[in-house]
User: Which sequence fits this backbone?
């Protein structure tokens, strides 16, 4: 879908490592490709291709979240993900640290055999008509359908105000 993204991210990572020791989980702007559109709800990078910042799976946020909260993802933000049972909770913290956004995803099956999570490098992908959030490799299998399988996810999203 977006062939230059992986190469550009690798070049930026190399450039950053040569100039400074930046925290890989610090607030970062999204990867924007406003000239690309897709109707897909999941983007997967095959094992034969290099991963994008360690990710191979990207989940589109719902249309409603894109309409109501899409502007949030245009700003630099930090990414944390926690999971347990049938849920994965994505928490995006605005670079100002004054507010954030949570995206709660509930699957029909277990997301992972064990609960876990933590801070992850931000790799939000903003296309012309979709916003994709990165899915950590620990839980990507829960989101990638097998042959002829359909995944049904229930989502909740809201702003978080940090006091």
Assistant:
């Amino acid at each position: 879908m977006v062939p230059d993204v992986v190469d550009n991210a690798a070049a930026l990572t190399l450039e950053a490592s040569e100039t400074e020791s930046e925290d890989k989980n610090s607030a970062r702007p999204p990867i924007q490709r406003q000239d690309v559109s897709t109707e897909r709800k999941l983007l997967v990078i095959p094992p034969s291709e290099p991963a994008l910042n360690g990710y191979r799976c990207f989940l589109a946020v719902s249309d409603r979240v894109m309409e109501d909260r899409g502007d949030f993802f245009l700003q630099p933000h930090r990414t944390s993900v926690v999971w347990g049972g049938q849920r994965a909770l994505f928490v995006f913290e605005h670079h100002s640290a004054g507010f954030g956004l949570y995206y709660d995803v509930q699957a029909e099956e277990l997301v992972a055999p064990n609960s876990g999570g933590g801070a992850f490098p931000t790799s939000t992908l903003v296309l012309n008509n979709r916003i994709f959030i990165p899915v950590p490799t620990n839980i990507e299998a829960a989101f990638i359908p097998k042959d002829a399988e359909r995944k049904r996810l229930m989502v909740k999203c809201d702003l978080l105000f940090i006091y």
